[in-house]
Amino acid sequence: MISFHDIAKGSDHMIRFLHVATETRVEFPAFVTEFSDSFQVGWGNETIFGRMDPVKPYQGTTRTISLGFDVVAPSLQQAKENMNNYSTLVQMMYPVYNKPLSGGFEGKGRTIKAPPILRIQFMNLIKNNSDSTLEEGLLGCISGFTFNPNKEAGFFDQNNELLPKHFNISFKFDPQHETTLGFDEENFINQGFPYDRPRNTPSSEGSTSGTPEVSAKLAQDMLRNLSKGMRGQ
Question: Which pLDDT belongs to residue 64?
Answer without folding.
Answer: 95
